[in-house]
Design brief:
The chain is 0% helix and 40% strand. With 96 residues, the protein is mainly β. The model has no long low-confidence stretch (mean pLDDT 83).
């Protein structure tokens, strides 16, 4: 959720997030450039998504921020966000 805490309308150019893929060597970057202007005090839910492509392991979110007029602003994250992806098998395919 992004909130305009200022006294003038804010028009973010984009919201971005980046982090590490499960292999720990490659990073991912997510961008949403379709952000509506925010009036003072107004909030918006911004969604960023990516296919996990079956890569098993922990996807670690490192930073989220937004751009306005070429200036980057860091957004704080609630705790250390991560997604653990496990390979799923149909119940009848598990070894007995």
């Amino acid at each position: 959720i992004i909130t305009n805490i200022g006294t003038r309308e804010a028009v973010p150019d984009s919201v971005e997030a980046w982090g590490w893929e499960p292999d720990g060597e490659h990073c991912f970057r997510l961008i949403n450039r379709q952000i509506a202007p925010l009036a003072p005090g107004q909030s918006a839910l911004i969604q960023l998504s990516t296919p996990l492509d079956g890569d098993e392991g922990t996807w670690q979110l490192v930073e989220v921020g937004y751009w306005i007029h070429g200036q980057y602003y860091h957004m704080s994250l609630p705790g250390q966000a991560a997604v653990v992806v496990e390979t799923s098998f149909p119940a009848d395919a598990l070894p007995q």
